[in-house]
Design brief:
single chain; mainly alpha; 0% strand
Amino acid sequence: MAGMAGQFPAGIKEEQIVENINTFREFLKMYNKISETCFADCVFDFTERKVSGKEEACSVNCLDRYMKLTQRVSLRFQEHQIMMNESNLEAAKKAGLIKE
């Protein structure tokens, strides 16, 4: 995206555009991974055009489990980050780098 200065709407920086593109790219990778995993785990009958009720239920359950797992991991990561930030803040205070 180098050399594109002046081509962005006012107030939007190139770094923001690149970050948004990278975020969207990661989303698409995750979406494709989930789709492939749930499809491989749940869809077996290719003799009919319609998805069976069993396959559909399996796919919904697969996605639900993945979303719950992702949410749980994200919450644990946030908790860990908060604890690390608090620990770093206390260490900085003890070292005299931050005054209260």
